[in-house]
Each structure stands twice: as structure tokens, then as C-alpha cells.
Amino acid sequence: MSPLPLAALSGPFAVTLNAYLYLAAVLFAIGFFGVLLRKNTLVIYMCLELMLVASTVALVAFSRYNGVLDGDVFVFFILTVAAAEVAVGLAIIVALFRRRQTVQVEELNALKN
Amino acid sequence: MTIDQLQAAAANNLWAAITPEITLGVLALLLLVLEMLLPKARHVVIPTCAIAGQLGILAALAFNFTATPYLDRDTFNGLLHHSRDGQYLRAFFLVSSILVSILGVVALAKQKMPRVEFFHIVLVVTAAMMLLAQSANFVLLFVALETITVGFYILVSYTRSNPLSLEAGLKYLVLGALSSAILLFGIVLLYGVAGNPNSLGSTASPMSYAGVRQFLEANPGNFLASVGIVFVLAGIAFKIGAVPFQIWIPDVYQGAPTPVTAFLAVASKAAGFAVLISLLPVFHSYAGLVTVVLSIMAGATILFGNLAALTQHNVKRLLGLSGISHAGYLLMGVVAAQTVPQAVGAIYFYLFAYLLASFAVFAVMTHVAGENDAEQDLDHYTDFAKKHPYLAGVLAVGLGSLAGIPPLAGFMGKLMVFIAAFKAGLYPLLAIAIVGVVLSIYYYFGWIKAAFFSTWRPPLASGETEPAEIAATPIGFSAGLALGVLAAGSVVFGFFQGPIAAWLLAR
């Protein structure tokens, strides 16, 4: 399959593949540093989702510009996996909140030597 | 796509090739059905069904071990590649899930917890591990890895009445999801550069290992591909607990129920190494980069694991940190495997010896653990040998094998990996590894000493009470048998590696 000719892929105001990749890299970096630096578990969780979305953006862009459809299909797998992860993750966070009345990471330090 | 291509694709979906995995999934569902159908008083038979079913699958797998017609073939349009190593790893994961089920029966009896879901999730995770070991496609790799990881989130926080277990679950969740996202981004980068139709050696199937390998061979030194490789390696390093991605290990190991800790320590780590070994040929044209990254990780991992374990009093944390150092020795084997093919066999034998020894130790810990699973100190093992000679004997064999004392199986595993590293010329890493082994003897024998020799303790101050005595659970038939087999296996495979080692090293 060859890449489809599309106005968006050529012309003076074309959005290049690199633009999408920079966007994906920035989203990924925001998510990554958010996970490392934020203190609230729910915000950390949002940052994790942001990292998955960054990968998805890059995947769709690659797929479109390379003319290979595998990537578009993979996106559905990623969405499904992310949904499963959220279902389990929020259940754990809720159960933990019931026991400890907090979701701040600096207060969750009962495990130590 | 023409109708012929679709027909060819459909004919390639050989469901019979993954019979063990499908049977495991059906067995897992069957357990849930049994829970609905049986009266509450009869629910005790469900774990027995799970263990018996897995033993049956293992027997069928052993019977078909070399006779299977799918050996060295691709099925499902290149999603899966069936090989001898794949067969070995299938058996490895099945054995560990059987042992986890046996430990689960012992551990769950102490908790007021639903039983059936535990075995259900263990079976599903095992099936995913078996698929992961045979994967030849990045989509399947990601989906199987996530099935394992999400299953482990639930298993780690399984005792949800215990805040420590939940906290461990949350930590595993955040860091596991972080590592998955890093791995995914690496896969996406590799997919993107390999599929670019304008570049040399571009491939029509950029998600398959073969396609990516073809592209990497045609383009050594591509920047985006290098970044992708490093991200993929980092994501896998997280799963095996290599420095600098080891941060979750002590806390999660401590908080998780003991059978789950054993499952994490053995099967999850082995799954990580299986992926790493299957990706080595894909990345071989970037061997320089891979060697640098993995060598630094291996050296740091060995030193960190051993040094951090020296001061531990909680035995679960101690095993977690010593497990980090074992991952370091294995990583050294992976570096060696790039030039010495026998190193792969050495790694598999090491994992086998590690399985025998680790499960022996974890089985003893499961019996010793009180209701609060996370608090298991070295102090609980005072006078252990006098009160429970059988458990203490198994513990000594297991710890000795983990420390690599000849003539136990752990020693032979270490020796094989070290010989492979020597052949590959990794002298600095070898020196670090030998220092690590010497350090490890200190903490393993500290534990054996606590169990076998009585130590002087300061007299109690007024008002202080004697620390609560922890009575070990009586040993049941299947757990006793498993303990005996594990200890005997560690001894026998130390003296006589026999056909297993010969078969693994022949390549």
C-alpha cells in the first residue's frame, strides 16, 4: 500500500511528520516528569495516561505517513489495555483511600525496613 | 487484499499450536463456573481442581515436548514463533504457576479472602507469560506483557484488608504503568522508522521482529531507532528489576502476599529475560549500543542488590534485593549471549535452579508467615531448626543454592553463566559478579544462622513483653511434597545436571 496523496501531506501549510513527533515527545515528557514530580496519586495516574496518549499520537502519525495500517490497529489494543489498567488502578486507589484516608504519595510510606 | 491473501492468513491461524495456553484459559474460566455451581462448603475442591488441571496440562506438554508439529514454525501470520526455547519456557511457567497455586492454598487459609479469583488470575497470567515467551511481534509482546502486569496489580494488592498490600499494589501500579508506557514509546519509534517507505530496507510489516530486524540491519546508527531500542530495553529492565529501575522491588515484594512475591520473583523475572533473549537477534546490528546499556545495568545491578541486602531484617525485602542481584548475574549472561550462543542455555539453567531454590525459601516463608504477611523478620526464625527441623532443612538448602554454595544447583547455574561471560571476554563484569557473590554469602548465611543457632538477646526491660511467638502452619500433604521435591531438586541438579543442561547448552 502506498501513502495516499492528501492536501494535508503536501503544500505550503502541510503539517509534517516531525511536527506530530515533537508533539508526541512533548506530551510524553510532560507525562513522564508529572509521574516523577507530582504528589497526588490521581494526578500521577492522569500523567500515566498522558504518556500512553503520546505513544498513540506518534503511532497514528507514523501509520498515516508510512501508509502501513498496523499502527492504527495497534491503537485499539492500546486503548483496551489502558482501559483495563484504569479499571484495576482506580479500584486499588479507592480501596487504599478507604483504609488510609489519603492518596498523597509522601504519606504512603508504611513499607520500609 | 485479495481473497487468496485472506485465505492464506486464515489458514495460518493454527489454534492447535497454542493448545496449552487455551486450555489454561478454559481451566481459569472453569474455576469461576465451579464457584457458582458448588455449594459453599465444597469450595475447598476448587484449588485442587486448579492444581490437578495444571498438572494435566504440564503432562500433555511434556508428552508433546519435541513431538509437536509446530516446532520452528510461525503461526498466526508471524505473531508467534514456536521454538525449543519456547517449549522450555512454557514448561517453566507452568511449573512455577503450579507451585504458586500450592503456596496460595497455604497462604489464603490464613486470610478471610475469596479464594477462587486468586487461582483464576494466576492461570490467566501464566497463559499470557507462555504466549509472551513465544511472541514474534511487538503487538503481541505489548498485549501479553500488559495482561501479565495488570494481573499482577490485582495479585499484589490481593489482601485488600491489609493497607500494606494495597500500598504495594499502588506502587507496582504506578511504576509498572510507567515502564509499560516507556516500552510502548520505544516500540512506536521502532515501528515508525522501520515502516518509512522512503528509507533503505523499509519493511511492509514493521511490527514483526523480522521486519524490524531487517530495517535495523540496513540502517546501522539510525538515531530514532537507537532511542527506540534504549526505551524498549528500559521498559524490560523495569520488569526484571535492573538498576536504575529497581526502585519498586523491595516495597512491592514486602507488601505482596508471599505466594505472589514468589511468582513475581521467579516467573515475572523469567518472562522479562525471555523477552530480552528473543529481542537480542532483532537488535544484533546495534550490538554496541545494547552491550553498553546492558553491561552498565548488569554491573550496577549486581553491586546495588548485594550491598542493599546486607542491612535488611525483613526477609521479604532481603529476598527482593537479593533477587535484584540475581537479575544482575543473568543480565551479564544476556550480554555474553550476544557472542556466545551457549550463554542462552546457561541463563535458562540458572533460571531453573533459581526457581527450585526460590520456591523452596518462599514455601518455608509462607508456612512461617502470620496473619500480617508483610512483617516477616529474621527474628521470627529464632530456634527455627529445633521447632521445625523439616522446614529449616529445606530453608538451608534453598538459601545455600541461592548463595551459590557447591554442590547445590544454584552453584552450577552461576558457574555456567560465569563461564559463558568468561568466553565472551567480559572480565570487568565477571570481577564485579564474583565480589557480589562473596557479599551475598554474608546475608544468606545470616539468615541460616538465625534459623539454626540461638543468639544472645538482651534481657527484657520491665514492662516489655516477649515478642509474639509465630507458630508455623502445619505442613499439608501437597505443600510438604512440593517442599521435599524442591529441596531434593536443588541437591540432585547440583551433582548431576544430566540431560537438561546438555539439552539447554546444545545450540
Summary of the model, kept short:
The complex is a heterodimer of chains A (113) and B (507). Chain A has 113 residues and is an all-alpha fold.
Could you characterize what this model shows?
The complex is a heterodimer of chains A (113) and B (507). Chain A has one domain: Helix Hairpins (Orthogonal Bundle), CATH 1.10.287.3510. The model of chain A has no long low-confidence stretch (mean pLDDT 87). Chain A is mainly α. The termini of chain A are far apart. Chain A has helices spanning 17-37, 41-66, 70-100. Chain A has 3 helices and no strands. The model of chain B has no long low-confidence stretch (mean pLDDT 90). Chain B has 507 residues and is mainly alpha-helical. Chain B is 71% helix and 1% strand. A two-stranded antiparallel ribbon of chain B has the order 1-2. In chain B, helix 7 (163-194) crosses helix 8 (209-218), helix 11 runs antiparallel to helix 14 and helix 14 (342-368) packs across helix 20. Chain B has one domain (18-455, 476-505). The radius of gyration of chain B is 23 Å and the shape is globular. The longest helix of chain B is centred in the middle third of the chain and has 32 residues, at 163-194. The chains are: A mainly alpha (113), B mainly alpha (507). The interface between A and B is large, with 46 and 49 residues.
